[in-house]
C-alpha cells in the first residue's frame, strides 16, 4: 500500500499546529516539510525553528526536504529540531556522499532528491547508501504545479536500481500528485507520495483516505 506524505507547504500557516494535529489522526505515515532558501529555489518557507515548534504535535515521521544551497551546513539544525528523514538535492551539494554519510551517522535516514532535468544515472554509485530517492515531478519552488509526465519513466529507472542494488530503498514522488495520477505512480514503483493541494483542498482526513484507496 502506498504511503501518503502531506506537504505542509499547502497548509494554513496561521494554524499550522492545529493542522499538524489533524494529520496526526490521519492515515498518513509521513509529514513532508519543504525547506526553501530563496537561493536554490525562488521561494522562502521556513527553517529549523518551525520544525522544532511543530514536532510536539505529532509522532509521525518528519520527512524534511531541504531545497537549499549547501545543505550540509544545516544538517545538525534539522536533526536537533526533530527530523526523522532528511533529503538533499543532488544539484545543491558538491559533496553529496559526505552529506549522506553524515546524516546517517547521526541515526537519521537520508535521501537524495532529483530535479526533473537530472538523470537517474547520477545515483548509480551512491544508491546503496540511501534510504530514499525523491523524484521531483514538478520544478521545485512552488506548490500547485502540474505533474511532469516523464517522471513516470524516472520512477521506473529508480525502481530498477532499487531492485538491483538496494531492495530496502524508498521511492518518493513530489509534485502534482492527485487522485487521478496516484495509481499510475504507485504502479510504476512509488512507495511514498507527497501531496499538497490534493490533501488540503477540502476535508484533510477524507482526502488522504481517498488517495490511498485510489491505489488499490
SSE order and pairing:
Layout: E1 3-6, H1 16-24, E2 30-36, H2 48-54, E3 61-67, H3 75-81, E4 85-89, H4 96-105, E5 109-114, E6 132-136, H5 151-165, E7 170-174, H6 182-188, E8 192-195, H7 197-200, H8 204-213
Parallel strand pairs: 1-8, 2-3, 3-4, 4-5, 5-6, 6-7, 7-8
Helix pairs in contact: 2-3
General description of the model:
With 216 residues, the protein is of the alpha/beta class. It is 32% helix and 20% strand. It contains 8 helices and 8 strands. It has an 8-stranded parallel β-sheet. α5 (151-165) links the parallel β6 (132-136) and β7 (170-174). The radius of gyration is 16 Å and the shape is globular.
What share of residues are in beta strands? 15-25%
Category by helix and strand content: alpha/beta
The total domain count is 1
CATH architecture: Alpha-Beta Barrel
Taking all Cα atoms into account, the compactness measure Rg is 16 Å
Which residues form runs of ≥5 with pLDDT under 50? none
Fourth-level CATH superfamily? Aldolase class I
CATH topology: TIM Barrel
User: What is the β-strand count?
Assistant: 8
